[in-house]
Amino acid sequence: MTQPSTVNPCPRCGQPGEMKKSGSNRFWVQCSKFGKDGNCKAIATICPNKAEAVAAWNKMR
Fold it and tell me: Domain of life here (predicted)?
C-alpha cells in the first residue's frame, strides 16, 4: 500500500488540513478551523483509506 501524500493547506482559508477517522475504514480531511474550532466549512468526502482521503482533499478547489 502506498503512503498518503502530504495534506495540502485548506483551499478556502489556507489553514492546515487535518486527517480524521471514524471506525476502521472511514477517513476524511477537514480544515483545522472547521466547526467549533473556527468558521471554515471545508471538508472532503469520506473515503475507505488515508491515501484516498488525502487525494480527495488535495483535489478540492
Answer: Bacteria
